[in-house]
């Protein structure tokens, strides 16, 4: 049996995966590098991302496929949306690595953490391109399981608790996904995600029913990973307990992986039509409502961001409630904008936590008057919140809201659209609450430290990114083929 | 010169951002520099707007293809009067800032927010693409929120926060519903070009009604139309004077403008189906607002309620479904913009001098204390009650007239009833206008049981020595008097000669109704 290989195409997955091994080997040879491993990890991730860039350019042909079997079925195929998500996963993981660099950890732990981030990023990048059920499932778990260790390695009580709930959820969701995958296998008689077997199965009533059930299981399993309500309960625990860069990893890179996995499935799911998509619509509505309502009362920064991610996950899957060619792009486009804004918010929180102590960053109140005390951090956080709320001057966030709403409104799903509109209002209330604190009375931290230059650089880059994309949203949206 | 279309909104917006950012720099620019920059930006914006209104250039380029958003800016008869109104008021509020610059924040933030609101409103009226219209519509929200939240009434911090939150939450809900409607409309008709949509679409009546209903609910919050108006009186009561002026004279107009652009022109069948409901709610608003004004104690809140009533007339004109009604609505928009700007400027000045705006506090006659403000108040309320020869008259009379002769596909009897009820609303307007003038302009100094607020609890001064009971405070001078003077002149000018405004909107309205019959 001969299989074709296109290494350039495989590089976004292969580079971080091999990089993880490389990092451990380097640690064996030069055991005293310590935190420099984070820099190495970031370089490897950006190198992997660089391989994805040519495919994400507007002119690139899509879908691109490799690992093709003699009968023309391919196990690895990426279209424009997939490449965009690979790029988002790798770049966001690189940002996480850089955010983590200044934070003190025991010397022997840094290479392990770096290797885990690389492994998870490789999984996230791989799942976007999976062409068969087996590699889809494996890649998804590769993307998820390292996060449990990443959370736990902070080695505080809260972190262990968070890791434990994350582990439980991961196991449950894996079980559900495996169940769904098994039923899929039974219905279609094969593992390919877009082969002829699927169409065949959708035509016969019996196997169609099994297929719908399989899809339900798969959606439920993915909903855990996307932290869609009612499968969200691990999110505040894990994000609140983890160190802040790992929190960013959980709510950005993991989310990219989960959405990539969902999009791969939705693409083949379109033949099944309504019942499946209706489920996604309900999940979206419940999730955004619950996330917003809970965030409205939350006092802790990290848990606030966790609830915000639950709400935003609802917005991400909102367009998938419709059958249309644009809905995949809309979901991916929304996710990319969300990722940028959330990373900026996490960068600011991490910078403050590192400079003034974690206590000065975990309570919303301690951000009082940030815009006066630290104008750059305050402006970046303020703009990120406005983007998440979808209010100008955060124009790119508004564009993302338009993107997410357009398939729903275009197909005149009025109920869903009205729920979304109400949630746009709730979301504004949520994010303006924090913004008011930033604009409000000064709250001096107990110990005021210096912001680490790497953090300053990242925040400045994020601020510049938000400003530039607010004038030209197309720059960001075009990476998913918008 | 196409550049004027970009200069008009962008110069105020960029200057506003620069002022706000400059405030955070290590060397904060001084008060005078800030004022000069803000004034320059407002003047440049106004001149560019004037040029664009005069020369009518068109700009149409691709912007965000992912959501089908184009950068399409131009001016037509419907937007031209509103653009002039916005540009002039944008300049006047900055000028007024010399006189009243509220505390609560730095001058840079204050003027920056005023410029951002002005620029955003200009962009809204210039946009000819439905999705960029929505974007510009949203642009004004955050600066307005800051104006109310930070620079509002310093005596009521809790109420300020609540009013600001209510303002932004209501309007965000409204504009998101509007977005849903816009997207449905764009998807169904296949274009987001407002010029193309202005010729009407060929959708079925059911589809048109559903989309029009969503759009109308969304925009009715902005107008605001009864029963979605409750954010307005709150926001006006605590907002700073300039904020109130922009809110009443510019932001509310964005709602009615949106209805004309997005509902009346593209969805004639849907609008015709919903017109009786819209007309009824408009008249309820007229009566409701008028009745509240008869008993309201807070002067600023009273003017806010009267705005609800006046916007009811505008909506009644739109609901009539006739070209005359639409003309009346567009004219009423401008008239209410000028009148409410005048009233809020005068009353804001009075509230600042009095230290409150409770009408039950007996005060000295304004005609004695401050003849200029007194005169302006009389002109403002006379226009508000619809006195012929002043701006308010034409819009309201024509609105009632058009409702009396509503379009053929409307229930004529019902609309005749609505016209009659609206006429009762004008009587209420006369009632509350005269009430305010009696309490404020005539004053209570000659009453036997006079208790001066400043002397309450102290022994009464001798009743026959008027010199001691008349509390002198500075009359309007300098920038405040210039602003008030210009607005008084505008109220009289539009009232005496309404033809130029009516003439400007004439052709555009005719085009909309040509699309309907086709």
From TrEMBL, chain A:
CC annotations in GO: endomembrane system; membrane
Cell compartment(s), UniProt: Endomembrane system; Membrane
Keywords carried by this UniProt record: Membrane, Transmembrane, Transmembrane helix
Keyword Transmembrane helix attributed: yes
Residue ranges of every copy of the NADH:quinone oxidoreductase/Mrp antiporter transmembrane domain listed in the record: 130-426
One matching Pfam family: Proton_antipo_M
InterPro entries named among the record's database cross-references: ND/Mrp_TM (IPR001750)
TM segment ranges: 6-26, 38-57, 77-100, 112-130, 136-153, 165-187, 207-226, 246-266, 272-292, 304-323, 335-355, 376-400, 412-435, 456-480
Membrane-topology descriptor: Multi-pass membrane protein
PANTHER family with a match to the protein in the record: NADH DEHYDROGENASE
The protein's name: NADH:quinone oxidoreductase/Mrp antiporter transmembrane domain-containing protein
The organism of origin for this protein: Leekyejoonella antrihumi
């Amino acid at each position: 049996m001969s299989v074709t290989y296109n290494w350039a195409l495989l590089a976004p997955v292969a580079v971080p995966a091999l990089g993880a091994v490389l990092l451990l080997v380097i640690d064996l040879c030069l055991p005293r590098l310590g935190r420099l491993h984070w820099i190495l990890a970031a370089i490897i991730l950006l190198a992997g991302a660089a391989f994805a860039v040519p495919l994400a350019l507007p002119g690139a042909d899509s879908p691109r496929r490799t690992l093709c079997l003699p009968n023309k079925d391919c196990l690895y195929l990426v279209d424009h949306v997939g490449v965009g998500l690979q790029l988002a996963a790798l770049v966001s993981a690189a940002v996480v690595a850089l955010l983590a660099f200044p934070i003190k950890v025991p010397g022997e732990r840094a290479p392990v953490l770096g290797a885990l981030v690389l492994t998870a990023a490789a999984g996230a990048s791989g799942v976007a391109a999976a062409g068969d059920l087996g590699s889809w499932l494996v890649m998804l778990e590769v993307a998820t399981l390292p996060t449990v260790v990443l959370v736990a390695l902070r080695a505080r009580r809260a972190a262990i608790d968070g890791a434990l709930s994350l582990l439980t959820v991961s196991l449950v969701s894996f079980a559900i996904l495996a169940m769904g995958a098994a039923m899929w296998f039974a219905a279609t008689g094969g593992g390919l995600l877009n082969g002829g077997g699927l169409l065949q199965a959708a035509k016969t009533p019996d196997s169609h029913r099994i297929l719908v059930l399989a899809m339900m299981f798969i959606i439920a399993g993915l909903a855990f990973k996307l932290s869609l309500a009612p499968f969200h309960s691990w999110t505040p625990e894990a994000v609140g307990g983890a160190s802040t860069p790992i929190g960013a990893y959980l709510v950005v890179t993991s989310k990219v992986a989960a959405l990539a996995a969902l999009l791969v499935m939705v693409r083949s799911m379109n033949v099944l039509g309504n019942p499946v998509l209706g489920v996604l619509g309900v999940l979206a509505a419940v999730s955004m409502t619950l996330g917003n309502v809970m965030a409205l009362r939350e006092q802790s920064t990290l848990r606030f961001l966790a609830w915000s991610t639950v709400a935003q996950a609802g917005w991400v899957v909102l367009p998938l409630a419709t059958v249309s060619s644009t809905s995949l792009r809309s979901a991916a486009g929304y996710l990319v904008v969300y990722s940028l804004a959330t990373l900026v918010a996490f960068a600011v929180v991490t910078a403050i936590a590192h400079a003034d102590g974690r206590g000065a960053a975990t309570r919303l109140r301690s951000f009082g008057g940030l815009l006066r005390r630290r104008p750059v951090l305050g402006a970046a956080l303020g703009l990120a919140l406005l983007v998440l709320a979808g209010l100008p001057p955060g124009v790119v966030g508004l564009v993302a809201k338009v993107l997410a709403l357009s398939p729903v409104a275009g197909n005149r799903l009025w109920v869903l659209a009205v729920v979304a509109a109400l949630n746009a209002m709730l979301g504004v209330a949520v994010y303006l609450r924090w913004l008011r604190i930033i604009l409000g009375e000064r709250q001096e931290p107990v110990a005021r430290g210096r912001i680490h230059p790497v953090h300053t650089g990242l925040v400045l880059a994020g601020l510049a990114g938000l400003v530039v994309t607010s004038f030209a949203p197309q720059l960001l949206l075009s990476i998913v083929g918008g | 010169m196409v550049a004027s279309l970009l200069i008009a909104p962008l110069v105020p917006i960029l200057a506003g951002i620069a002022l706000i950012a400059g405030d955070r720099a290590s060397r904060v620019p001084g008060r005078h520099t800030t004022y000069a920059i803000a004034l320059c930006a407002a003047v440049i914006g106004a001149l560019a707007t004037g040029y664009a209104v005069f020369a009518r250039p068109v700009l149409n380029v691709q912007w965000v293809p992912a959501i089908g958003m184009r950068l399409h800016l131009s001016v037509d008869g419907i937007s031209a009067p509103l653009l002039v109104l916005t540009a002039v008021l944008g300049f006047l509020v900055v000028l007024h800032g010399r006189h009243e610059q509220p505390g609560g924040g730095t001058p840079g933030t204050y003027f920056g927010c005023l410029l951002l609101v002005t620029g955003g409103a200009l962009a809204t009226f210039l946009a000819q693409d439905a999705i960029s219209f929505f974007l510009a519509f949203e642009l004004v929200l955050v600066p307005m929120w800051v104006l109310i939240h930070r620079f509002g009434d310093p005596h009521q911090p809790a109420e300020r926060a609540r009013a600001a939150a209510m303002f932004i939450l209501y309007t965000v809900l409204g504009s998101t519903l509007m977005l849903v409607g816009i997207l449905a409309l764009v998807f169904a008709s296949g274009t987001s070009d407002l010029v193309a949509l202005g010729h009407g679409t060929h959708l079925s009546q059911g589809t048109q009604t559903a989309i029009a209903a969503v759009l109308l609910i969304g925009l009715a919050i902005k107008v605001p139309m009864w029963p979605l108006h409750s954010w307005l009186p709150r926001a006006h009561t605590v907002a700073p004077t300039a904020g109130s002026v922009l809110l009443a004279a510019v932001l509310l107009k964005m709602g009615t403008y949106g209805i004309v652009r997005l509902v009346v022109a593209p969805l004639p069948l849907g609008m015709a189906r919903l017109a009786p409901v819209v007309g009824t709610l408009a008249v309820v608003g007229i009566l409701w607002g008028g009745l509240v004004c008869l008993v309201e104690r807070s002067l600023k809140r009273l003017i806010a309620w009267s705005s609800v009533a006046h916007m009811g007339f505008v909506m009644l004109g739109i609901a009539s479904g006739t070209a005359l009604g639409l003309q009346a609505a567009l004219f009423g928009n401008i008239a209410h913009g000028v009148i409410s700007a005048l009233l809020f400027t005068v009353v804001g000045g009075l509230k600042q001098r009095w230290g409150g705006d409770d009408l039950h506090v007996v005060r000295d006659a304004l005609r004695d204390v401050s003849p200029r403000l007194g005169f302006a108040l009389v002109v403002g309320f006379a226009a508000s009650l619809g006195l012929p020869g002043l701006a308010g008259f034409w819009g309201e009379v024509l609105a009632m007239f058009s409702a009396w002769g509503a379009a053929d596909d409307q229930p004529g009897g019902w609309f005749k009833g609505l016209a009659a009820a609206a006429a009762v609303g004008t009587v209420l307007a006369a009632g509350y206008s005269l009430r305010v003038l009696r309490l404020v302009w005539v004053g209570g100094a000659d009453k036997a049981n006079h208790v001066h607020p400043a002397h309450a609890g102290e022994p009464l001064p001798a009743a026959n020595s008027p010199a001691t009971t008349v509390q002198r405070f500075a009359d309007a001078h300098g920038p405040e008097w210039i602003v008030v003077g210009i607005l008084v002149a505008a109220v009289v000018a539009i009232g005496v000669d309404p033809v130029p405004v009516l003439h400007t909107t004439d052709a555009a309205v005719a085009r909309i109704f040509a699309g309907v019959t086709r």
